[in-house]
Amino acid sequence: MSKKALTTGAPKRRRRRTQAADAQGGGENIAPGNTDSSYRSRAEQEARMQKWAIRGAVAIAGVLALLVAITFAVEQLIVPNQAVAVVNGVDITVREFRQQYQLERNQLLLQLNQLESSGFDIQQLAQQEPYKTWISEVNVPDQLGLRVINDMVDAKLLVQEAASRDIRVDEAALRQSIEAFFGYDATEVALIGVEPSATPEPTITPTPFVSPTPTQTPAPTASPDPAAPTEETTSEPAVTAQPTVVEPTLSAEEVRQNFEQNEQDYRSYFDRVGIAAETVDEFFVGVALERLLADALVPADGSLLYADVRHILVEEEETAQKALKALQQGESFAALARAISTDPGSGSRGGELGLAYVGNYVPEFRRAIEEAETGALVGPVESEFGFHILQVRSKEERSGSDIEFQLERAQRQELEQLRQSLRDQQSDNFAIFDAWLDYIPRG
């Protein structure tokens, strides 16, 4: 090959460029500077990218919507039906717990607001019970939650116990519990405007075991004035005319209407704070059931045991044994009680407690009285206060009007003892799960 052929390559480059153009563009020559093809390529790429961006956004939105739907389903359908406790195979659900918590908290707030609106200083009330506990529970969710979950377990146990005794709440019992809750006594209302000689048909209205307002409200204690005269000392006392204020007397119909309005306002309040009507109804059913159980435990036409008792209370069992031995050897009960009893009330009286309803005493002391023979020395009996040596002077059953003022208290005590015994006896048949702490409403 010649030197000229080796150093001259221009014609060969033109052929390669022409062949490449033929292969790509069908033999057409594209003039330099023509950008239509490159422009269309960029537009297509941008359109494609925009399309994928839209698709990605839609996909993300779908995923988020799915997550929201799953969260909603969990919070509204799954979580509310989870159990926070179980009693003999019956679940207490998150929904029930939350509703009961809100009901209890708002009842406390109502009671405290009523006291405050009546002029009581809440800060002063916080130093005494039950107001101290009320205020603490309102401000400490975990404390209220613990009480609520335990009360719900006790309520389930009572429902199951009532069923075993064939005790059920009918419409009449429910209505009576609602009336008593709001202080509406159908018997008293029936007497309004009735001549004393007429005897209307009585309607039994039980006293509720739970009240929206405190059964006792603190009142200022009047201090006696030592300088105040106890009798008239002048022959012609000055007389100052005072206007006579006559309180209007409501008719039976007006009293009934007031009761119905109070019930409606009460239910409306709980509806506004998100508590279901069914929860309020269940509360009243619970009140009625407790009343029926209490009546079964201590019938109104039954009797109560009263006993005349004396005792010696000491801190150590050894001291109690020595005291018992001394009494058996003839030591004076009264003298020994005055000498060693740590009960400041009865000790100074020679250990005398007097004649009283035995339900007033702590359970251990009460059982000892019930089982003791009259005149026998009994002990040592251990209670939360120490060790007792006791002697029953006499026992008697009382009924009718003799126990009228003690009956409700006796029923409360028996119901509380039943509640505690059920909890002790069935401790293996119920469980409270720690998860309840996670579901306390804290808003």
Question: What is the topological layout?
Answer:
Blueprint: H1 3-7, H2 10-25, H3 36-78, E1 83-87, E2 90-93, H4 94-117, H5 122-125, H6 131-139, H7 141-164, H8 171-181, H9 186-191, H10 252-272, H11 277-297, E3 303-314, H12 317-328, H13 333-340, H14 344-347, E4 352-357, H15 363-371, E5 377-383, E6 386-399, H16 404-425, E7 430-432
Helix pairs in contact: 4-6, 4-7, 6-7, 7-11, 7-16, 8-11, 11-16
* Widest sheet: strand ordering: 4-3-6-5
Question: Rough shape?
Answer: elongated
Low-confidence stretches: 1-10, 17-23, 25-31, 202-246
CATH topology of one domain: Chitinase A, domain 3
Q: Tally the beta strands.
A: 7
Biggest sheet character:
4 strands, antiparallel
Helix/strand/pairing category:
alpha+beta
Q: Strand share of the residues?
A: 5-15%
What is the name of the CATH architecture of one domain?
Roll
Describe the structure.
The structure is a single chain. The chain is of the alpha+beta class. Among the domains are: 45-81; 90-164, no CATH class; 304-400, Chitinase A, domain 3. Helix content is 54%, strand content 12%. The strands form 2 sheets. The protein has a 4-stranded antiparallel sheet with strand order 4-3-6-5. Strands 2-1-7 form a 3-stranded antiparallel sheet. A hairpin with a 2-residue loop joins β5 (377-383) and β6 (386-399). α6 (131-139) packs across α7 and α7 (141-164) crosses α16 (404-425). The longest helix is centred in the N-terminal third of the chain and has 43 residues, at 36-78. The radius of gyration is 42 Å and the shape is elongated.
